[in-house]
Amino acid sequence: MEPKVDKRIKKTKRSLRNAYIELMEKYAEDEITVSMIAQYADLNRATFYAHYSNKEEFLQEALCELLEGFREAILTPFKASNRINVNSLAPTTVQIFEYIEKNQRIFYALYTGHTGFKKHLEELFYDIFSNDILIETESPFGKKVDYEMFLHYQSSATLGLIYYWIQGNFQFSAEVMMEQLTILSNTQVIDLKKVSD
Questions:
Q1: Nearest to 17 by CA among 76, 57, 46
Q2: Residue 148 class from Cβ within 10 Å (0-12 exposed, 13-18 middle, 19+ buried)?
Q3: Cα separation of 185 and 135, whole Å?
Q4: Which CATH code, of 1.10.10, 2.30.30, 3.40.50, 1.10.260, is assigned to 1-52?
Q5: Which positions ≥6 away from 5 have C-beta within 8 Å?
Q6: Which CATH architecture has domain 56-185?
Q7: pLDDT tens figures, 30-79
Q8: Do 118 and 163 form a contact (C-beta atoms < 8 A)?
Q9: Nearest CA to 93 among 196, 191, 179?
Q10: pLDDT tens-digit series, residues 83-116
Q11: Does the pLDDT at position 2 exceed 50?
């Protein structure tokens, strides 16, 4: 009997989440109410409140599930090997962009509607590359790289590219984004040149 209840709950929550995604594609976040979410999901408000105390709790659960899936996607390549070369297209890069592309509607909805989305994504990246994956570095100047600074720099660059992709409503394919991240990560700045007036 228990698994049937679990399936029903999952189905209800999935319906509510899909309804929210549809609403985010049509309305501003502050216009969306619990009643609208329930109505779009073809459920009543009481059903929504049987699972969540408010809209914030509903969004937080959606965010946590999305980020947990993201963590798993990033760590998946390390099940086969404990070291990955990043001079070519890295499996982690593939996983990052394929996961986002597969879940692009909820990424877009939460990026637009959840005030803590960026902060949580940044914390996730920082946690993964502090505790699960170590980025090995080598400085062309022969000086030690401050890992903490490098991690903030690298995370900001990668996330900046991801935000650019989301803001552009995924106008490029995951393949293009993977290729660009690989190129950008391995690009060396040679000079700065003033633009002529």
A1: 57
A2: exposed
A3: 13
A4: 1.10.10
A5: none
A6: Orthogonal Bundle (1.10)
A7: 899 999 999 999 999 999 999 999 999 999 999 999 999 999 988 888 87
A8: yes
A9: 179
A10: 766 655 567 788 889 999 999 999 999 998 888 8
A11: no
